[in-house]
Amino acid sequence: MLSICRKPRWSPYLVGAGIGVLSWATFYFMGKALGTSTSFVGAAGAIAGAVAPEHVAANAYFVKEYGAKAGATGFKPVFDWQMALDFALVAGAFLAAWLGGTFRTERVPSVWAERFGPSVAKRYATAFAGGFILLFGARMAGGCTSGHGISGGLQLAVSSWTFFVSMFASGVVVAAILFGLAPGRSGGGKEVTRV
Amino acid sequence: MFEHFFADPKTLLLGALTGLVFGFLLQKGGVTQYNVIVNQFRFKDFTVLKTMLTAIVVGAIGIYAMLQAGLIGGLSVKAADLGMNAVGGAVFGVGMVLLGYCPGTALAAVGQGSRDAAVGVAGAIVGAGVYAEAYPVVQRTFGSFANFGKITFAEAAHTSPWWFVAGLALVAIGLFVWLERRESPRGRPASA
Fold this sequence. Notes:
By secondary structure, chain A is mainly α. Chain A has 10 helices and no strands. Chains A and B meet through α2, α3, α4, α5 and α6 of A and α1, α2, α3, α4 and α5 of B.
């Protein structure tokens, strides 16, 4: 058990199957579907609520996501099942990286640096803007790659597959604009003739 | 404004346990790496698609089997408000390539030391807040003109979900076989 945990990388099929089985457990034991992005609304609401609670309490979207069930007033806990999951994602990945010997501080990923240079400011500015757009889109769509992509996908939800196809198509276009059209195999090595 | 800021301890413990396993798996799978995610959109690395499709097929088999056996009460399907799903998905795709992580993998990437992911998480919280402000306008513009409710493909087609699960499994396996052959042109076995 420990030896496999020390491996830096697992097969995507093993990891995918593990996430699939994890989703069985969340449905069966917790009556929940894997998801991560609603809690970003909770976090924003909690932070803004510390300064302007009336403003947040009057926000239609915050009420939609965190308002108490019909008949009751007030709000459901913001630090809920999913928020605990989100915090634990950081810890789980740290554990995996630490055991696998892959933990390292990284500011500018290599594929980014090859294309846009080593500037940390440039990378951080884009990451911030990207995160902003990412969550705006996720909340608009009603979920992200976890809630729609995995949980909704496996339930055969029409909403989720619409999101998945649209997200992937958009990402391919943006990646082509940013990195140019250079199809090929991994590593950016020279093309190998298909047989 | 919150009567209870925290949910009950059992709920939090179960959520934390789920996140711990989820984060561990994502990191071991390599999908917490900017390079892996961006290269999926460039068709240079198919790790993301392999992971997601396997999770979907394995998950679907278990969930529909449990539903049929009466072991789970019901599904948890999000509303098919197609204008919102499609436009939101397109916006999400832009953000995902710029950031190089999705919300869950960004959080997990923070745990492996990726500082750019932490900056992305900060941007994401701000984005969520701004969405909450913009919600009425966005909803009026893109919402409800194509809302079919919380529906699955099996329900829409009035047929057994197993046809879709089987079809999805066949497509996924076919794609995986093709990808693995393509990635090992000289017949060397793919790394385990």
